[in-house]
Amino acid sequence: MAIHFSVNQQEVEVSPGEEEMPLLWFLREKLRLTGSKFGCGIGQCGACTVHINGTAVRSCLLPVGQLQGSQIRTIEGLAPTGQLHPVQQAWLDQDVPQCGYCQAGQIMAAVSLLERINQPTDQQISDNMTNICRCGTYTRIRKAIRQAAEAHAEKPVTEA
Hints:
This protein is an alpha+beta fold. Helix content is 34%, strand content 13%. The protein has five helices and five strands. The protein has helices spanning 23-30, 86-93, 103-116, 122-128, 138-154, and strands at 3-7, 10-14, 49-52, 55-58, 71-73. A five-stranded mixed sheet has the order 2-1-5-3-4, covered by helices on one side. Strand 3 (49-52) and strand 4 (55-58) form a beta hairpin. The longest helix has 17 residues, at 138-154. The radius of gyration is 16 Å and the shape is globular. The model has no long low-confidence stretch (mean pLDDT 92).
């Protein structure tokens, strides 16, 4: 039986026999969404971080067979209208990327953090940002998260 879930609000189907394929490889090889990167393959580095039903998850170990009915969001899905997500804009403003390899995963982890805690403390940032950056841009990452949080706080509240 085929597995169905959505990726960036597009319905996808996993063919029978592919249920054990890790989500990362399904995204990269089948859907050609190459923003999520392979880093360590053991769920430690976070270069492969995506959102599953709103939660940041390392996609390199998760078989697609476990995703029936799930909603997946990748780095490519953060700016569907073409306007950068506030975290992406903060990343550019703070000149976060050095080599850039881990940055999609870092951004996805930061977005997840800010969706749960809109004004995180430094300790909350440290506790939640567990992705590894081999270039050591952690200070700039923290600044970008603070900038995105401030931008969110300054946004006018609109009534429905």
